[in-house]
Each structure stands twice: as C-alpha cells, then as structure tokens.
Amino acid sequence: MKNLKPFILAATAAVLMVSCSDNDINPVDNQNAKLLDAHSHEVCSYIDGNWGQNAYIGSTIVNQSETNFLNNQNVKIANVFNISTIPLYFAKGSGTANAISYGSGYIIYGEELYNMALSQGGRISCAMVQAHEIGHQLQYQNNLPSRSESTARATELEADGFAGYYIKKPNGYNATWTQAAPAYNFAASIGDYNTTSPGHHGTPAQRRSAFRLGYLLGDYDLTVSSFDYNFFYYYDNYVLPGALRQDLKKPDDIDEGLHNFILSKMEELRKINSGEISKEEFENLK
Hints:
By secondary structure, this protein is mainly alpha-helical. Helices cover 47% and strands 6% of the residues.
C-alpha cells in the first residue's frame, strides 16, 4: 500500500508482548531504515504509527526458508521491472498485518500478514503482496499513476496490475492462471465498497479485474510507463464503463497484436469487474 497506508488490516490480532524499554524507541525513517541493513539480530524498537506499538524490525520473516524466498522474490521483481532492488525490512510481533511501501524508498512487510497470505494462498500470495508493494515504488519513481482520482483506487488498482504482470512473466514468478487466481483471491478479498472514501482501494471485483488485466499484459514486454499507458487505456475505456466499446480507434502507439489480444479478453474482464464472474469462476479462467 502506498503513502504509508497498510496493505491489509486484520480484524483481530493475537497479543504478542515484546519487551521494549523507552530507551529503545527508534522510529524507522528514511535515514535509519538504511542502517537496519547492518543488523543481523532482532531490533527491539518502535517502527512508526502504521504498526502496532509492540511491533519491531527483525532479521527474518517466519523462518529462514521464508526469508530467503521473499528476499529472492524481491530481487526477481526488481529485475522484471529493470530497477534496483528495493530495501526490504520485516516487521515482527503484534500489529504487523500490514505491508507498507514508503515514499522514501523502502518496504516493510509484516510477519502477521505474511503468515495470513501463506496459509490462505501459499507462497505465491506472499510474492504477489511484495510485487504490489514494489508497484508502489514504481509509481513513486515514475510519478504514476497517470490517472488521477479523488480516492486511492487508481493507485491501488495499478499496483494490482503490476503484481499480475510480474506473476505472469517467464522471468518473474512464471505462474499459470490456475496457480495465480486462487492466490490472488486472498488479496482481492480486502477490496472495499467505500467508494467515496479517500482510502478506497477498489471493490474485490475491480481488484480481480485489475490483476487479471496486468496478468494478460504480462504476455508482452512493457516498460513501466508503457504498462501504465496500456493499463489505463483498457481499464478506463473498456473495463470500468461496464460495456464493450466498439467505437474507439486504437491509438497508434499501442501494439496491434497486444490490442487484439486484450480485446479478445475484454468480455471476461468486463464480467470480472461487474461481479458477474464469481470468485470460483475467476479461478477457472484460462
């Protein structure tokens, strides 16, 4: 989630007490986030107001195997989008059902969220959350999204699209739709219907359609700016209106093959967005 908003908040969280004295309080800002790389042990310190008061930065997430997996995914995601690896930190303890992408150039991934994703959708869900958060870093770096709305919806839907793109790419997660869709339903389930709220992220159906569009765009090699252009061209003109558009002339700078391919999928994208395609039917698409 961008702008210091949590990716997901659990309705309830187990109380896990961590002994941190007042002398240990050390908020994570841009400067000392860089210093955390030097730590090879658990850092008992206050993070910031987006995390539980007992949350702290640790050197692992869940265990060493999961830590290695997520770090490897972090590198692969950066490689797919041709950017430097984004500094990644792990929040442990209670109040960590979040993943946050900070405008100053780093990501903190909460252990409670990781465990939720792992249990509900497997490792691919954990990777999708990280790809979504790196999507926000791409937005920070490139002044995206190009589409402006009064809520966070465009920002979050594009990050969902970036995640879908990564999951599809052969040099990324290289997942089939059968592997990707059930896992993405974990993330889509946190969509909301507060359409006028500044923090509105899109409905579950909209988030599924955004991820599906990004996944389909993964058949093509796009720069970050080209992804943004193509994503919003199809999403704004075809998906969100809720009906197929036959009167639009293809822009000259959109690839003919890509255009025909996406249009061949547009009926399903429209139905995903409208909710006509159920969660179960979503998983069975090809």
